[in-house]
Amino acid sequence: MTRLRIWQQNLNTSSDAQHCILSRPSAARDWDIIAIQEPTIDTKGNTRATPDWHVVYPMHRYTQANWRQLPFPSADVVIIQFTGPFGKLTILNIYNDGDKQDTPPTLHRYLESNICTIQPTHDDHVLWLGDFNCHHVLWEEERNRHLCEPRQAQANAQAWIELMADYGMCQALVKDKPTLQSTRTGNWTQPDNVFCTEHTLEAFTICDTAPRLCPPKMDHIPILSTLDLDIPQATTTINYNYQDVDWEKFNSLLRTRILLR
């Protein structure tokens, strides 16, 4: 069975961190999706990637053999949908601005109008992953309860909890798994998370943080997920390197074949 392997992380627009992840010699072999929140963006509005990766930008629509991008009315959410023997798997890569907290209402309106596309049948799978920028005792460690108690913090988290309840989502990354260390206080919290449709939990073989793989100078750490879902793989195209050709040998062989005609 082909497993779907996902690396997710908020990079705080760090080009060094993004290069560190994407240019790892084994990155394209070990991971199928790298879901970045707050990627580095240049002056032309483009991000950076190595040739091994197909970059999916917000608001654009791509269709490949086994996956497509679904449009979303905000640059803070990117949606891709896979089709396979399991049905459909729709992945929402989410960034929720901690100050604006405007992603939940936008997502709510979008799901109300597009749920039949996101999850055509009850057996189809949905993942929400990313930086949700809110605190709640359902995922934070007990020592961070003080961050969950202010009225605004409760309202921010409640917006996500109501969305989860409305669309049958549950938490795949277990509680008490810190994902962010404050650069000011050194405190660890869990604003980054993974949510999925309830039956999708059975497909997870891994959903855990990986501090050892964190790029230098990053406050958010990666979350690694592996799902036992059979995603059809793209056929690898072999590209010839003409700079490595022995042209003397090539020309000699070519002359011989021409003379034999």
Features:
single chain, 261 residues, alpha+beta, 6-stranded mixed beta sheet, 4-stranded mixed beta sheet, 6 helices, 12 strands
The gross shape turns out to be elongated
- State the distance separating the first and last CA atoms: 49 Å
Based on secondary structure, the structural category is alpha+beta
Q: Which residue ranges are poorly predicted, with pLDDT under 50 across at least 5 consecutive positions?
A: none
Number of E-state strands: 12
Query: What's the arrangement of strands in the largest beta sheet?
Result: 3-4-5-6-10-7
Rg (C-alpha, Å): 22 Å
Q: How would you characterize the overall build of this protein?
A:
With 261 residues, the chain is of the alpha+beta class. It has helices spanning 15-22, 27-30, 103-118, 145-148, 151-166, 247-259, and strands at residues 4-10, 33-37, 67-70, 77-84, 87-95, 125-131, 169-171, 180-181, 188-189, 192-197, 204-209, 223-227. Strands 3-4-5-6-10-7 form a six-stranded mixed β-sheet, with helices on one face. It has a four-stranded mixed β-sheet with strand order 2-1-12-11, with no helix packed on it. The N and C termini lie far apart (49 Å). The model has no long low-confidence stretch (mean pLDDT 91).
